[in-house]
Amino acid sequence: MNIRTVLTFLLFITQAACEPQRTQEINFDKLGFNASKPKDEIEHQTESDTTFVVMQEYAEGFSYDMKYATDDNFLKRKVYSCDKCMIRKEVANKLIAANDSLINLGFRIKFFDCYRPVDVQKLMWKIYPKPGYVANPYTSGSIHNRGGAVDITLVRLDGKEVEMGTAFDFFGKEANHDFTDLPENILKNRKLLKEVMESFSFKSIRTEWWHYNFINARQYALSNFQTDCNY
Q1: Phi, psi dihedral angles at 202 (to 5 degrees)
Q2: pLDDT digits (tens, 9 = 90+) for 61-113
Q3: Helix, strand, coil shares, percent, the chain, to 5
């Protein structure tokens, strides 16, 4: 090996040692999280968004008549230990936005039911096992059991309920969204509630004018804990 070959080889070795090492680029989007934030931070944010909050403690401006904390319901008995409205935080934030929109129109939301334990769902199914009104707790359960559904109506800013055509938990065709043989003011009230809720990521069900599911609520796990009354 002549001197020129030796010098060329040494120069190659020196350049290779000084060149920065290239690493394979990771596609964070394919891994399922945002590359702009640490993964543990994103997981913490997701967990925080799906924890339960008590609406009475979390936000102002709502009305409440939690029917299953009384005997004024189709079960004819009190099945909740207290009248707290518990819901997932992500859902609560959407409800606040919907309520703010309604307040600008002279109305606000009144709650009849929020999170519901699976055991209560079983009691309901035993009394009224009809899908469309009561979800089967032995299959997919209710979105209420996941903390992603609410039963609501509208009240005026003074707290007076508007007319909706039937009482809450009226199991008949008159409570259906597609039942139109009603006075014009009732149809307008139902339409207002439906349009506002749908504009804030909720879906209605055909049979109950009062029931709304958060669009992403199927991702939440079924729960069976009793509401904490010590808030």
Answers
A1: -115, 155
A2: 999 999 999 999 999 999 999 999 999 999 999 999 999 999 999 999 999 99
A3: 40, 15, 45
